[in-house]
Amino acid sequence: MRAGAAYDVVVIGGGVLGTAIAARLAQTTASVCLLEEADDVAEGASKGNAGITTTFYAPPGTLEAELIASSWPRWEDICDRLDVPFSRPGALTVAISDEQATELPQIHADALAAGTRAELLSGEQARELEPMLTPQCRGAVHLPDEGLIDPMRLTCAYAELAAANGAAIALSCPAVGFEADGDGLTAVITPAGRLRARWVVNAAGLCGGTVSALAGGEEIKVWPRKGQYWILDRAFGERLHKMVLPVPMPHTRGVQVVPTTNGSALLGPDAQEITDPADKATDGPSLAAILAQTEQLVPEVSLRYAIKSYAANRVAAVETVRVRLDARRPNLVQVGNRSTGVSASPGTADRVLDLLRGAGLRCPDRPGRVRHLAKVRRLLHDPDPESLPGVDPRYRQVVCVCEQVTAAEIAAAFGRHLPPRSIEGVRKRTRATGGRCQGSVCMVGVAFLCSIHTGLPPAEIRQGPAGATLGVGSEP
Q1: Alpha carbon distance 347, 349 (integer Å)
Q2: Predicted confidence (pLDDT) at residue 4 exceeds the cutoff of 90
Q3: Beta pairing, strands 32-35 & 168-170
C-alpha cells in the first residue's frame, strides 16, 4: 500500500468476511486494498470459532439462509483450490428430553425448506451414527452435509489469494477517519497515510459500528459476545463420528461437541454478553458448566483429554446479518454476520461484488486471474510421507512432534505473499505449537526458524501479535 494511492475498493477488516471479499474482488479488474488493524489476518472472531461450515442455520427465506445456501455446496472446490483442510462428517442436533424432542420435527422441516438434506432420527438411529451419544437421546435431526474447516487457514488463504491477484494488504493499519464530499466517501485515512477510494466495504467486525460512525454512515449497533471453549486432544476427538449439537436456544446454537480438521475436539462455546472486546478471560464456573452440558450429550467427555481452554469474542448485533449499501453513504457497503461468517463467506463475497456492480462499478472478472494456491504437502496427512525428503530435505526436520509439522512446511508459510509475523502466525498457517503440549516442546525450534526466515534475532521473535496502534478495529 502506498500513501496517496487510489483504489476502486478499500475493504476494512481482515477477518474471514473481509478477506473473502478482497479475494473475490481482486479476481476482477478492480483495484483493491485490504486494511487490518492487527499485524495479521484472522485475529478476531475468525480465529476463535468452531470451524463449522453449516448448511442450515437461519429460517428459510432470510438473507442468512440465502448466503449459506449459495456457499455450502462449494466448499470442496474452494478448499481444494486454496489448500485448506475440509471434511463433511455431518451433524446431529440431539434432543435429550421429551420436551426437546417435540422441537425436532420443526427443525427438520426448516432444514428441508432451506434446501439442505436432513433426516429425522430416533434415539437409537442417532446412536448408530454416533456411538458416543448419551443413552438419554430421545431423537435427533441429522444434517449429513455439515462440514468442518480450519477457519484460520481459510482466512489466511483468502488473504493470500487476494494478494496473489494484486490486492494491497495493509496490516497494522487501521482506518482512523474518512473524507467525503456530496457524492459520498472519497478517502480513507490511516496512520500510514490517506487512501483515495471509490468504494469502501465495512467488514470490521466488532468495530463495524465505529467504522460506520467515522464514515458518517448508519448507526450500526454491535457488541462482544464471549464464548469459552475446552480443547480435547486426538485421543478423544478422533473417536467422534459426527458433530453433536444441542437443540438451539433463542440467542445461541448452544454448547457443542465438535471434532476439528486436525483431529482434536472442541467443547463450547457458551454465550456471555460483555462490554469490553478485550476481555478474553476464562473462568472456572463457566468452563465447568460447559463440561457439564457437553457430558449430557456425550458422557465420555473428560478433562483427562484437555489440552487447553480459551475464550473468543464474536460479534453480537440486533441485525444478525447485513450485506447492503449504507443508507447515508451511497458508496459504503455494510457487511456483518453474527454467527455464520465462515459458513456464509463465499456467498457474502459474491453478494458484495453484485452490489458494487449493480451500483455502477465496472469490474469484469480478469482473464488469467489466480484461482489456485500452491499446495503444501504436510507430513501428518501425506499419503506418501517417505517420498517427502526427496522433495525437500527439510521434511526430515520434524519441529512440532504433536502436530508433525516439519521445517519444510514452516518454510512454505514464510514463502507466501502474506507470511507469518509471529509464532502465533506460524500456528495459524501450519498448526505448529498447537498440539497436545501447546508449544512447550517445540516453541524454541519454531522461534529459531522464524529467526532464520525473518532475519530477526531470536529474542525479537514474538509469540503473538504486536501491540497495534489504537484506532478502528483495535481492542483498547
Answers
A1: 5
A2: no
A3: parallel
